[in-house]
Specification:
CATH superfamily: Vaccinia Virus protein VP39
Distance between the termini: 25 Å
Radius of gyration: 18 Å
Structural class: alpha/beta
CATH architecture: 3-Layer(aba) Sandwich
Number of helices: 9
Helix content: 25-40%
Largest sheet: 8 strands, mixed
Strand content: 15-25%
Number of strands: 10
């Protein structure tokens, strides 16, 4: 990935996530379901926020034997919504995010949580994290917004770098819906003809009359697991449709170097 492509992607993506207010960040970016969109009442929004957080933490930790002495890392931590409960289960919790505003708000949200920290990153690397220093990497509602395959691949290589041998990785992203046979054949032929490789749609409707305007790259489960293995991450489980019909959760283990 050339620097110009990454720079433009990073600027566009930061512009999206640098919400105008903490309210907008929490309830219109991080949590953006129809229930959240239906109200401006902060008490109700806080209730929904806490309910959704309580429901998603067990999904993140499914089959993860988290230990008190572990270091855990979240990619795309936002204001620290998930980092706070994870910090209560481990020795050190580190979050990275590309939005400076999100990182600032996370600092306030995580006041009183001494073992949690948040770092600003460049949206593709984990430069502030030492190699083989992390026991568990997770990401929720972040990879689904990455619109460049090259950025996804860069993150996977970085996850493999920072994980200790035997460390766990659990990522949620969009899964590719089955394609008609004709479309699949055209996608195979395009690279042969020198045309751009198949890219999943950047826009899609997630409810009637409402369109997601910052959708990211989607993957077929088999292709996604191949990508993980290519980076030294061995998939041990894949779950489809957990939390959303088009979601895919994959748990991997860092293979021995």
């Amino acid at each position: 990935m050339d620097a110009a492509t990454h720079g433009k992607w990073l600027a566009d993506t930061r512009r999206f996530w640098d919400a105008g207010s903490e309210f907008e960040a929490k309830y219109r970016r991080i949590c953006a379901s129809t229930e959240f969109a239906a109200t401006d009442d902060e008490a109700e929004l806080r209730r929904l926020w806490e309910q959704e957080t309580k429901e998603i933490v067990p999904v993140i930790l499914k089959d993860i034997p988290i230990q008190r002495e572990w270091t855990c890392l979240e990619i795309g931590c936002g204001v620290g919504r998930l980092l706070k409960p994870i910090a209560g289960r481990c020795k050190r919790a580190v979050g990275v995010d590309i939005s400076e505003r999100m990182v600032d708000w996370a600092g306030r949200y995580l006041e009183g949580v001494p073992n949690a920290e948040v770092q600003l990153n460049d949206g593709a690397s984990l430069a502030g994290v030492a190699g083989a220093s992390v026991d568990f990497v997770y990401s929720h509602l972040a990879f689904q917004h990455i619109t460049l395959v090259e950025v996804v691949d860069a993150y996977l290589r970085e996850i493999a770098r920072v994980l200790r041998d035997g460390g766990y990785c659990r990522i949620q992203n969009w899964r590719e819906a089955p394609r008609p046979v004709g479309q699949a054949l055209r996608d195979l032929v395009r690279p042969v003809l020198g045309r751009e490789k198949y890219r999943s749609p950047r826009y899609w409707e997630w409810s009637e009359g409402r369109e997601v305007k910052f959708g990211g790259t989607t993957f077929h489960a088999r292709a996604w697991k191949k990508r993980l293995r290519g980076c030294g991450l061995r998939p041990i489980s894949t779950e489809l449709g957990v939390g959303h019909d088009s979601w895919m959760w994959t748990t991997s283990v860092r293979e021995a170097r």
